[in-house]
Batch of 3 targets.
Target 1
Amino acid sequence: SLLQERKSKLILRMSKLAIFQGLLVDSNPDWSLRLEKGILLVENDRIVKRAPVSALSSILAKYCLKEEEIITLTDSQFLLPGLIDSHIHASQFPNAGLALDLTLLDWLEKYTFPTEAGLEDIVKAEQVYTRCVRTTLGCGTTTACYFATIHRQSTEILAQVCVNEGQRALIGKVCMDRNSPENYCETTDCSLSESKQIVQSILNMDSDLVKPVITPRFVPTCSRELMTGLGSLAAKHNLHIQTHLGENLRECDWVRQLEPDCKTYTSVYQKSNLLGPRTILAHCCHLDDTELEIIKEAGAGVAHCPNSNFSLKSGICDVRRLKHAGVKIGLGTDCSGGYSPSMLNAMRHAVMASNTLTFGKPESSHQPIQFSDALFLATRGGAALLDMEQEIGALEEGMLADVLLVDMKGHGATSLFGHETETDLVHKFVFLADDRNIAQVWVAGKKVKDLCE
C-alpha cells in the first residue's frame, strides 16, 4: 500500500546512507586485481549495493537519494577495502624506526622487553596506544591484530582506545612464563588467570570492533603447560590465537632444545592445541614441508612480515611456496621489528622479498609476486587469515563497510601525468603512496579520517 511504501522510505532515510560513484578497486579470490567503474552504497555499517554506473538512477530512486548526495570520485581517486595488518605490536610503537642493529633474540632482550615492561604504567600505555592506533588508522589500517604486553590493565586500555578511535582490532594480552626478564615474566597460573580475565573484559565491552585473541608470545617464553592451557581457553570461547613461528634460525634451534619430544617447531603448537582455523602464525621463514602440511590441515595461516624479516636479518618467507602448499597468507607490519607501521610499506617489502628469491637463479625458476598479489595479501588474504573473509577484505555486497578513499593527488610523487591506466593508478599507489594519499577512512560505515574536509 502507499502508506507502507511511505513508511519503508522513511525508515530508509532514517538509516545512515552513503553513496559513492567512481573507480572501485579490490582483489578477486584468485589474487587477481578487480577494477570497475561503479556505484557503492553503504547503509549503516555495511555495503548494501555494488552496481555498474548504469544502475545509478534506479538506486537513487529505491533509496530516496538525491543526485547531490552522491560522493563522486575524481579521476585521481578510487575506493579500496580497508587494509588488514595481521601482525603488529602496539606496545613496541615507541621503538618504530629504532633499534634495528641486532637480530631477533638479542633485540628482544636489549630493546623490546624493556620497552614493553614500561607499559605497566597505564598512563604511558594510553599515550602509546592512542598514538599507535591513530597512526595506523591514518595509514589505512582498518583492522589490526595487536600484541599488547603481559599487563592485563594496559591491554584493556588498548581495547578501549581502538573502540574510541574506531579501529577494528583483535587485542592480545601477551603470555610469557619462562626465559624472560625478572621484571617482565609471569607465573603459569597468573598468565592463564589474567588471560581468562582479559577475554571476559573485552567480551564484556560488547563492541562490534574489538575481539580478544589468545597470545602466547612464542615457544621459548611459554611452557607447554601454559600453551596447553591457552589452547583450551581458546577452544572454550572459539577465540583467535596469535603467536610467532620459525622467524629466526637461532630461535628454531632453541625450540629444538627446549622441546626435544617434538619433531618440529610447528608440532609444539600442534601438541598444545593451538592450531586451528583462527590461528595466526607470524613470520614462518624457516619451515619444512611437513610443517606447512600441518598448518594447512589445521586451517591455520601465516602473517607474512617482510619488513621485519629484513630489518632483523631473520630470513625470507616464500609466499609462492606457501600459496602452492594451500596455506592461508596475510600481511603484517610487525612494528617495531618492522620499522614502519604502514601496510603500504609492508606491501612493497612483500614484493621485494619475493624478488630476492630470484637472485642467482635462472629467471624462469621463480615467479616473484607482483603489486596486485601484495594488495590481495593486505586485504582479502588478511581477511581469510583472520577467518573473516565473509565480513571484510573486499568491496562486496553484505560486507562490513571498511573502505578507503584514495587520492593520487596526495603528494607530488603520486600525482598523475594523464597517460596512466586504471591499473597504473593501483600500481603507483602500492609503490609510492603514503598516509597523505589515504584521503578518507571508513570503518563499519563510520568515517574516522577525512583529509577532504
Target 2
Amino acid sequence: TFDAALDFKQAVNHPLGKNLLGSYYPASLIAIDPNALATLSERHCLNGIAEALKHGLTQSKELTDTIVEPLRHGDLHKVLRDGA
C-alpha cells in the first residue's frame, strides 16, 4: 500500500495485534502499476490519496500542493493519473 511504501512499514497483522510481525525500513523501490490502480474502487483510491496527503502535510509542501490543487477543482482522476 501507499502507506507501507512511504512509512517504511513492512509488516503483517497477527491474531494478537496489528503489524506485530515485520520491520520498518525504507523500500528500495516503489513500483505503481496504473493498470492495477484502475481496478480499485473510488473509496480505495481516496484512501490512498489520504495517506499521500498525510505524508505531504507532515513532510512536503510540494507533495501537498500536487495532491490538493486538482482536488480543489474536483479532479480526482488527475491526482491518480499524474501521480502524487
Target 3
Amino acid sequence: MLQRRTAARKQASSSNGKRPNGNSRRRKKQRSNSIALRAAIFVVSFTFTLIIVANHLFGTNAINGASANNNNKRDLLKFYLRNKVNANVPDDAIDPAAEERANQREARYHSLYRPKFDQNQLGYDIYNCPSTPPDHYPMSWTTVEVLSNWMPHDVTTIAPAYREIYQGLCVFDYTTQYDAALNYRKAELPFIIRNDPNVMSTARRWEDDTEYLHHALGDETLFRTERSPMNEFMWYRLRGKGMPRGYVKPPNDEINMSYGEWLERALAKDAMALQDEDLSAKVDAMKKRRVQLVTDNKKQDDSLENDDHDQDNSTEEEKLKNWYYFRLTTSLRHANKDPSPEKFVYDELPFLDPRKRSESQFYIVDPSEERGINCRFGMRGVISANHFDMSRNFIMIFGGERRYILGHPNQCKNMALHPIGHPSLRHSKVDWNNPLEWDENPEFKQALVNEVVLHAGDALYLPTAYFHYIVNLSLNYQCNARSGTTHENAKHIRECGFNMG
C-alpha cells in the first residue's frame, strides 16, 4: 500500500516536470496492461466455466484429454493453478459488498468475545501495551477460574449472549505498533498482532467466499485428514510393542479426504449449531454434487473405488456424527512445483515464506530453522488437547474463530502431562471439560493460564514450549510456521521430565 502511494505521488509530481511524453507513454502502457489483464482474467474465467460444463456433460476427459492418467483426471487443482492469473488488485478495487461483510464479521466478533478485565485490573491496556513488557506479563488465572467461566465444549455463542474472556495478552496493530510488538517477540513473550495488510488480504479471500479455497483445492485431490467419533483430538505416535500398561489408543485416526467433502461436513456442523436453513440447503447441494462426482468417476473407471485404501469408508450416518480436522502440510522442497498445493499455499502466504524476507522477516524469526507451513482447518467443536512444542511458532487465522488457552512453560509440573515414552508425550492427560478429572489431578487445578479468541487476520506468537489448548468455535482456516528453538524456559521443561537438547 505504502509503495503504491509513494509511486502515485512520484507520478503526480513528475507530471508537472519536463517529461510529459514519458508520462504519457507510461499511462498508455498502464492502460494497455490493464486491458490485457482484464482480457486474460475473462479468458481464464470463461475457459474454466466451459471446461466445468464440459466435464459435467462429457466426463473428466473433457478437461484432461483421452490419454490422461487417472490421477490427472481427478485433479482439479492442477487445472486451477495452471490457469490462475496472478493480478495485484489495488485496494480501491475491493468489492464494497465484500467490505461490508467483513465489517459485519468484525462487529460480530467484538460483540461476542469481550475481555473480562480492563487496564485497572491488569495493570496494562491490552490494546495499548507499553513498549517494554510489564514484569507480570502476561496476566494469568487458575485453570478452574478460566474453564469454569467457559467450558470447552460450549462452543456456540449467539447474540445477544456473549463471552467474557480471561485475556492477558497484548494486541498490537501492525501498522502503528510494529516496534512494540517486535520488543515482545525479542523478549520471547506471547502476543497477538493484527491489521497486517498482507495477512488481511489473504484472510479476505479465504473467509469471504468459501468457494475460493474450494476451487483451489478441489473435490478430488485427497489430503490427510484426522477423523474421530469424538470432538477431542489427542496426538499420539505408536512405536514398537512397548506400550504403557493399560494404554488405550485415542479414537482419532487419519484418513484421506478431499477438501470439498471436508468443507461440506464442516459447514454441516455450523448449519446444525446455528439452525441456518440457507446453509443447510448449501450443504445439501454440495452433497448432491459430491455423490454425482463419485458416480461419474466410477462409470469412467471401475477401479477408482479401490485405488485409495485410506479413504473414509464410514457410512453416511457415521460421517455425520464424526469430526474431521483437515490438514495441508507444505515444505519449501515442493514450493516451486507448479501446479501443486504447496505452491498454492506459499503463493497465498508470502509472509510465511522465508525466501521473501521483506514480507516474512517479522513472522519467520530464524529462516535457517524454518519447518514449512502447516495448515489445520477446523470444524466447529473440534478440540486439540493441551500440549507444548519444541519451537517458536506464529499461528494465523484466515477465517472463522478459534479459542486458545495458553500457559507459560513454568506451569509444566501442573499440566498433568503424559511423560517421555508415552505415545502422547507432552500432552495433558486431563480432560479439560470434566471437573471430576480436575479433582483427580489437584496440581492441574493450580495451573495458571490465560485465553484469547482469534479471528480472521489475527497472528498469535507462541514462544518455545508455551502450552496451548485449542477449541474451534466455527469452521476456520489456520496456518502456522515454526522457525527455531530458544532455551530461556528450558529449565522448566527439564524439571518436569523433558529434554530440550
